[in-house]
Amino acid sequence: MGHDLGHTPFGHAGERALNRACSEGFMHSEQSVRVCEVLENDGKGLNLTAEVIDGIRNHRTGGNPATLEGKVVRLSDKIAYIHHDMDDALRAGILKNDKVPVSIMRVLGETTAERLDSMIRDVIFTSRGINDIVMSKDVGIAMKSLRNWMFKNVYTNKTAKSQEGKAEDLVETLYYHFLTHFEIIPDEYKMLIERKEKKEIVIADYISSMTDRYAISTYHDLFIPIPWMVV
């Protein structure tokens, strides 16, 4: 439940923008930990166990969770976002169908449902009886190939990238605006300054808490003029 609490609006595009803009840097996995330890419960934190915090911090692809539960989350996250992104791409018209290369279908299946079933079952049976949570070599290679295929056909697609650029510009614009107009952010974030938190980090806290729609709405309210109406 906690692995993506710190994610920005517009996913990794927003994360890249905040990481560039914020002098303290930004990584959504570390922000998720910050939400749990610093921001939630009126600044008191959630008093989670070290194992849960470790799982949240290390859910990303390059992470190395210390517990089996954390390893489950890490693999589940990878399996889920590949197929979730594929569904989004189909709805957006970036992909015309979900037919992946034959070499991948041969191992994982032809449909989203078949691929999910193949990956989940593979993790269960490959991990049985060992002190680890892993995929078999063949399925792991097929999943990596599927991710590479997604990069080629979705993540670096011209239409998708054009929207990512807009999203990054929006997030950066909000960040720099709040940096010079700190007084307009909500009081619950201003209170963090009294605890000696840096303004740059507090602004990143606020922006990363936004949904896509709220970020767009905030940008609209701040920068898009209301047309004059002649009565």
What's the topology here?
Layout: H1 11-21, H2 28-39, H3 50-57, H4 68-92, H5 102-108, H6 112-127, H7 137-155, H8 158-180, H9 187-194, H10 199-208, H11 212-223
Helix pairs in contact: 1-8, 3-4, 4-6, 4-7, 5-7, 8-10, 8-11, 9-10
Description:
- This protein is an all-alpha fold and about 230 residues long.
- The chain contains 11 helices and no strands.
- Helix 4 runs parallel beside helix 7, helix 5 crosses helix 7 and helix 8 crosses helix 10.
- The protein starts with 10 loop residues before the first helix and ends in an 8-residue tail after the last helix.
The H-and-E topology, N to C, reads as HHHHHHHHHHH
Q: Residue ranges: pLDDT <50 for 5 or more in a row?
A: none
- What is the count of β-strands? 0
| Rg | 21 Å
Q: Main sheet?
A: none
* Overall average residue pLDDT: 91
How many angstroms does the end-to-end distance come to? Answer: 52 Å
| Apparent shape | flat
What class do helices, strands and sheet pairing give?
A: mainly alpha
Beta-strand content? under 5%
* Oligomeric state, counting identical vs distinct chains: single chain
Give structural attributes.
231 residues; mainly alpha; 65% helix; 0% strand; flat
Concise account of the structure shown:
With 231 residues, the chain is mainly alpha-helical.
